[in-house]
């Protein structure tokens, strides 16, 4: 774990999923991480701009990395799987090809943006607290162990695959979320589709296919006895939380499965309150699980 | 290309990257799908909801620097389907998950991004006019480094 990071919340945590940004800032303080805001950051373009306009995508991300560098930071911290893959993919491309980096920098200079030398590393919050001194610090701050709470880890795709761009852990047998759940004093429940897709990128354009993807982890996590699910990605969160009602109707099953952001799980174990972690900003009520946490019910 | 744009085409891809991860020959199918998607999108074929979804992202970054989340539903699925989804939108709004569409959040230094977007577009058009358009290939050495 570093002592300071250029902090990139991305669009969702800045807009509809503000509880993620709030919780991240709250746990960073507890962990002793300084988060330096990037004043002119924009959207990373998600998979959409990456697919439709690859050149524009590359420049958008180079501009964000250049801004992080301008702040004197060598590590940019993300809290979203899609932002992580997009920024790392662009970064690797720029770092591997000096001619490309030079051409992109010429364009950045022409519009008055900060240039980029290739010296920033992109890391997700999950990786910073799942091993090394970040993990030790996590164990220290987890002063209110979530005893008896069963949590289903849901990784999402773009924190695991493709591993040549992400590469933190084995994409078929990841353990980082389980380690964090255990450090928080809760019990990690295992189920096969924890590494599968939540369907979010096509939830509007191909809703039937997307709901099929979404139903599977919900069914399996419920069957495994989970009180709640935790995810390191706000897009997975939106899919699993906001679209859960639609998945429920499609599957003809009541799920009522609260979905936690990673920072909320850590925050709850670190003694932060229900209000501080903004659990009320969820679509699926978190009460059965948060009652267990806050009242030991 | 028309056949790849509609049902069971490029916009069905969930971007789960299992194919890239599993492919024993290193074909990177997802990357190939993205290249076809780029060709379809840049040829102006925007009728599929998948392409319209991508268009919202491109337009949003130009307009505000951020994703205009409230534009995603109506512009992807169309006004009629969006109206049918009003009860769902209200449920999200009650949880505070619908940003005010009349006062969109705007990035600082937005002019940089707008200029960048226009500059890239002009360069792409010039390359297309010269007949040099197409996916740019990095030098072999750089490709080898990236696939390590």
Can you give a write-up of this model?
The complex is a heterodimer of chains A (297) and B (148). The longest helix of chain A has 17 residues, at 54-70. In chain A, helix 3 crosses helix 4. With 297 residues, chain A is α/β, with parallel strands linked by helices. The mean pLDDT of chain A is 97. Chain A has helices spanning 10-14, 18-31, 46-52, 54-70, 81-96, 98-110, 125-129, 132-141, 176-183, 207-223, 234-242, 244-251, 262-269, 287-295, and strands at residues 4-8, 34-37, 75-78, 121-124, 150-153, 187-188, 228-231, 259-261. Chain A has two domains: 4-125, Up-down Bundle (Glutathione S-transferase Yfyf (Class Pi), Chain A, domain 2), CATH 1.20.1050; 139-296, Rossmann fold (3-Layer(aba) Sandwich), CATH 3.40.50. The radius of gyration of chain A is 19 Å and the shape is globular. A four-stranded parallel sheet of chain A has the order 2-1-3-4, with helices on both faces. The two termini of chain A are 34 Å apart. With 148 residues, chain B is mainly alpha-helical. In chain B, 61% of the residues lie in helices and 0% in strands. Chain B has helices at 2-5, 18-22, 29-42, 49-63, 69-77, 79-84, 86-94, 110-130, 140-146. The longest helix of chain B is centred in the C-terminal third of the chain and has 21 residues, at 110-130. Chain B is globular. The model of chain B is unreliable at 135-148 (pLDDT under 50). Chains A and B meet through helix 1, helix 3, helix 4, helix 5 and helix 6 of A and helix 2, helix 3, helix 4, helix 5 and helix 7 of B.
Helix tally of chain B equals 9
The tally of helices of chain A reads 14
Shape of chain A: globular
Helix proportion of chain A:
40-55%
Examine the secondary-structure arrangement and name the CATH architecture of the largest domain in chain A.
3-Layer(aba) Sandwich
The span between the termini of chain B is 32 Å
Mean pLDDT of chain A: 97
Helix fraction bin of chain B: 55-70%
Domain unit count of chain A? 2
Low-confidence runs of at least 5 consecutive residues of chain A: none
SSE ordering of chain B: HHHHHHHHH
Topology order of chain A in helix (H) and strand (E) letters: EHHEHHEHHEHHEHEHEHHEHH
The most extensive interface between chains reads: A-B, 65 and 73 residues
Main sheet strand line-up of chain A: 2-1-3-4
How much beta of chain A, percentage-wise?
5-15%
Can you tell me the CATH topology of the largest domain in chain A? Answer: Rossmann fold
Instruction: Report the biggest beta sheet of chain B as strand number plus sense, adding barrel if it closes.
Output: none
Mean of residue pLDDT values of chain B: 86
Distance between the termini of chain A: 34 Å
Using only CA atoms, what is the Rg of chain B? 19 Å
């Amino acid at each position: 774990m570093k002592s300071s990071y250029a902090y990139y919340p991305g669009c969702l945590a800045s807009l509809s999923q503000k509880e993620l940004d709030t919780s991240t800032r709250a746990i960073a303080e507890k962990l002793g991480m300084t988060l330096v805001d990037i004043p002119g950051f924009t959207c990373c373009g998600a998979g959409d701009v990456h697919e439709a306009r690859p050149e524009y995508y590359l420049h958008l991300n180079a501009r964000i990395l250049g801004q992080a560098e301008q702040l004197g930071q060598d590590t940019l911290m993300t809290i979203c799987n899609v932002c992580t893959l997009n920024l790392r993919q662009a970064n690797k491309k720029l770092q591997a090809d000096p001619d490309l980096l030079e051409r992109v920098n010429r364009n950045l200079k022409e519009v008055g943006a900060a240039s980029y030398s290739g010296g920033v590393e992109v890391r997700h919050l999950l990786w910073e607290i799942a091993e090394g001194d970040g993990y030790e610090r996590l164990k220290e701050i987890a002063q209110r162990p979530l005893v008896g709470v069963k949590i289903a880890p849901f990784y999402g795709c773009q924190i695991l695959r493709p591993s040549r761009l992400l590469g933190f852990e084995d994409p078929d047998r990841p353990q980082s979320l389980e380690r964090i759940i255990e450090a928080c004093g809760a019990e990690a429940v295992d189920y096969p589709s924890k590494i599968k897709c939540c369907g979010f990128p096509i939830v509007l354009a191909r809703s039937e296919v997307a709901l099929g993807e979404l139903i599977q982890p919900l069914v399996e996590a419920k069957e495994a006895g989970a009180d709640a699910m935790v995810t390191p990605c706000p897009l997975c969160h939106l899919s699993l939380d906001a679209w859960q009602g639609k998945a429920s109707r499609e599957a003809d099953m009541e799920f009522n499965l609260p979905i936690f952001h990673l920072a909320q799980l850590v925050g709850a174990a670190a003694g932060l309150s229900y209000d501080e972690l903004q659990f009320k900003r969820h679509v699926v009520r978190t009460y059965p699980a948060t009652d267990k946490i806050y009242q030991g019910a | 290309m028309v056949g790849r744009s509609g049902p069971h085409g490029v916009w069905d891809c969930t971007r789960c990257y299992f194919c890239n991860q599993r492919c024993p020959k290193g074909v990177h199918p997802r990357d190939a799908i993205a290249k076809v998607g780029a060709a379809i999108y840049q040829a102006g074929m925007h009728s599929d909801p998948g392409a319209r979804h991508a268009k919202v992202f491109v337009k949003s970054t130009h307009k505000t620097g951020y994703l205009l989340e409230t534009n995603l539903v109506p512009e992807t699925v169309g006004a009629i389907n969006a109206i049918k989804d009003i009860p769902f939108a209200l449920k999200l709004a009650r949880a505070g998950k619908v940003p005010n569409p009349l006062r969109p959040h705007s990035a600082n230094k937005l002019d940089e991004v707008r200029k960048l977007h226009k500059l890239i577009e002009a360069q792409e058009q010039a390359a297309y006019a010269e007949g040099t358009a197409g996916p740019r290939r990095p030098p072999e050495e750089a490709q080898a480094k990236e696939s390590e």
